[in-house]
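Same chain as my last thread, 939 residues:
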Amino acid sequence: MAELPTGTVTFLFTDIEGSTRRWEEHRDAMGDALARHDTILEAAITGHGGVVFSKMGDGMAAAFSSPDDAIAATLDAQLKLTEETWPTETGPLRVRMGLHTGQGQLVDGQYMNQPLNRCARLMAIAHGGQVLVSGATEHLVRGGLPEGVGLVDLGEHRLRDLSEPMRVFQVRHGSLPANFPPLRSLEHYPGNLPLQHSSLVGRAEDLARVAQALEMFPVVTLTGVGGVGKTRLALQVAAEVLPQFRDGAWLCELASVRDPDWVAQEVAGVFQVSARPGLSLEESLVAFFSDQRLLLVLDNCEHLLRPVASLVTRIEGACPGVKVLATSREGLNVRGEQILVVPSLGVPDEGAGLEGLATCEAVQLFIDRARAVKADFALDLSNAPGVAQVCTRLDGVPLAIELAAARIGAMTPSELARRLDRRFRLLTGGDRVAIERHQTLRATIDWSYELLSDPERQLLIRLSVLAGGFTLEAAEAVCAGQLIEVDDVLDLLATLVARSLVVATPTGAETRYRLLETIRQYGEERLAEAGETDPLRARHADYYIEFAGGIHRAMYGPKQLEVLARLAQEHDNLLAAMAFALDTQDVDRAMGLLCALPLSRAQVDNPVDFEPAAVLALPGAAEHPGSARALLESARRAQGGGDSGLALELLDRALETEQRLGPGPDPLGLGIEAYVSGERGLVAVGTGRLAEAAEWSLDTAERARAAGLDGRAAIFLGRSAYYLAWVDPKAAIARATEGLALARRNGMPSAIALNLYALAATLAPSDPQRAAALLAEAETFGVATMNALSAAVMTAARLADWTAALRAADRWLDLTHRSGVTAQSAMSETFHVVARALADTQPEPAAVLQGVLWGPPGQSSPAAPTPTPPADAPGSNPRDEWITQIRRDTSALLVDAIGEAKMRELRAEGEAMDGDQSLAYARTHIAEYLAAIDSSSDG
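reply #2:
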C-alpha cells in the first residue's frame, strides 16, 4: 500500500446501496459484480493520487492529499460505474460516497477516529449514485472546480453521533443523476433525539449487541453503574436504528420526575397526549401508541421502577409496533424484557505499548476528551504511562475518565494519576481490590469537588435543585446568598463549565446550563448534608411561580412564540416546583404556581399541565382564593372529556368561590369571570350552540380589552367571528375585521392568524379570491391552534381547494390524536371534508371514511344520515346544510366510481373502526394523496 497522507487529508467512504439483498438472492453473481466494483473504484482512487486504506464489506475508505483529486476520483468512479455492464441478476450497482476533509493524524499506521467518523456518517445519509461533500471540503475547493462540475448546497444536517450539524453539498455533473430523495439525516425522521455534544468513543460491540436485542425483544433495559454511559449508548443506538421506525425515536427523560404518579404525564408530555374521554392518561397513552411504529427511550428509571414497569407492561401487551429502550440502575422486570449490562470501557493491559494503548477504548476516550481542552494533546512515550494509570484507576468508567481528562490543561497525566491514587487510598483504606465502580466514580467526583473553592462548591450543590436545565437568571435567583453574591454567579458558573461539572448549551440568544445527572445527584446529597435542601427548593419554587406569571403576561403580544418557547424549556423545573409544594403541603405555593401558568392549550412545544385535583386536595385548599382557578382547570378537563354538564357545574362553583373568598392569584388581573366566559364558550361549541359560543367569546374579549390585554381580546374576537361565520356572516365580518386590526396592532402571532382564518371562513362564499389570499397569509404564521386548523379545513373545502384542506386536516387530526380532546361535531366536519377530498382519486378509502361517520362501532348505517341540528335555532343552519351537501356530493362521486354495493361494503369497514383506527386510516391516505401531489409538483 502507498504511503498514507497526513496533515490536511480528504477522506472518501463508499458503500453499495442494497447490497445485502443482492448477496442473499444472487451470491455468485454478486461476487462477480463486487469484483468489477472494486476494480473500478481502486483504479479511480489510485489514478487520482488516492490511497485505499480499508475495505469495509461492500465499501472502501481512501485518503487524498488534495480535495480536488478526491472529487475527481469520485466523478471518475461514478461515471465508470454507470457505463459498466452489470450481471442481469444484480442489475447496476449504485454506490453512495462521502468526502470530508480533516486532520489526518496517524498512530501506529492508523488514522485517528474523528475525521473518519464524520466521513462515514456523511456517506451513510447519501443515496446510491450520490456523492456528498462536507462543508470543510467545499470550502477548500470553492471556485476551483473543473468545468461542468458543481456543488449544490443541501443545507445543514444532523448526522448520527456528531456534536453539531454539518453543512452538506452534492457533487453535480451533467452525465450523472441530479435528483435524489431527501438525505437520510436525523431531520428526515420523526422524533426528539437531542444533538450530542460529544462523539461516542468505542462501544462498537455494545452498539451491535443492543441493536440486535431490540430486533428480538420488545423491551431492552440497559443497566450499569452511574456514569458508565447508559444514556449515551441508548441515544446512539436510537439514532442508529431510527430508519427502522416509521414514527421515529423519542426520548423521555425521567431523572427530574419525583412523583411516581407523574410518569405517565411525563411520557404523555413528549407526545402531547392528553387523557381521552372515559380513559385514564395511561390508557390514553396506550391507545395513542397502538397504531404507532416507534422507539421509546425511557432514561433514568431507577427511582420509578414500579410506575415505569406498569406503563411499559401495558405498552408491550397492546402496542406491537412500539419498542422500549430503557436505562436504569436495575432491570424493570417486565414481560418481554432483555436486560443488558453496560460494561465499563476496556482498560489497557499491563505493560501495553503505544500501539496497544491506542486501540484501548478507555484511552481513546481520554485522548478525545483531553483534546477538547488541549487541542494539541497526543499520546506519546512520555505521557502514555500516566494515561494508562488514569484509565485503569478509574476502571474505564466514562464519566470518571471525562472528568479526569478535563483537568489535562492544568496537570499532566502522571499528576492526575498520583492525585487519583491518593483519593482511592482515602476512600478504601488502601485496599485496591475492594474499589467498586460506583466508589471509583464517587472518588472522582469527590476529588473534583474538593478542588473547588468554597463558593464554587456551594454553587455546584445549590444548582442540584434546578431540574432539566436552567438559565443564568435562574441560577442567580435561586443560588445566590451567603457565600455567593449575585454578581459572582456568572464567573463561578463559567468555572464549573470549564471543569466539566456543568454543561453549557447555546440556545439562540440565551445559554442554558445543566448538570450531568450523576453530578446533580451528588450535589443533592451534599445539599442534604448541609441542611439546605428545603430552603433552596422553596426559593426555586418561588422563582418559577414568578417566572410563569411573567410568561403569562408577556405571551399576549409580539413575543408570544419566544416567551412560550422559554416556558416549554422550563417544563421540568415547573414540575419540580409543584412537586415541592405538594410534598410539603404548601397550599400557597401550589395555588400560586397553578394560577400563574397559562392554560396548556395556549402553550407550545412541551406544555406544562398540573393536575388540579392534587392541588384542591391540599389542606386549606377549599378556603384558598386560588381554588376558583383550580375549579376552572377541573372544568376545562371535564369539557375536554365530553362531560359538558360537569364542566358547567364546576364553572358555577368557580364563580361562587371567588365571590365568597375574593380574587386569587392572577398574573393578568382579569378575575375568574373572564376565564369562565371563555370556558362557557367552548362548552357551547361542543354542544352545537354557535351563536351562544360567539357571545361568550365576545364577553371574554371585552373583559380582556378592559384589562389592557389586546392580544387576548383579539383571540376571542377571532373565535367569536368564526363561530358567527355560519349563522351571521355580516356580524362575523365586522367582528373578524375588528379582531384582525387589533391583533395586527398588538402583534401577537396566533391572534393575527386566528382572525385571518375567521375572516377567510366568512368570506369564502361571497369572495373566494380574497378568502384564498387570507387563508394563505394565515398559514405563514405557523401557529395554528385546533380551532384555527378546523377553520382552515372548512374554509379550504368551501373554496374547493382540496389539497389545502387535506394539509390542514392532517395537522388537525395529528393535534386531535395527541390531545385526546375532540368535539364530535368538529370531528364529523373534518372527516366529511377528508372523504370528499379523497373521493376523486381514492374512492375506496373515501367510502371507508364515510362509514366512520355513521356512529359508534357496531351500529347499522342509517339509510339517509343527517347532521344533528344545533341548539341555536330549530331545524338546520347553513353549516349543517353545507355539510349535508358535501356528504351527498361525496356519495354521488363514490357511486359513479365504485358502485353503490361496493360503497356500502366499504362503509361497513369504517363503521367497525374505533377513533384511533379511523384517525390513523385517514392520515395514512391523506399522506398518500399529498405525496402524490408533491411528487407531481417536483416533476
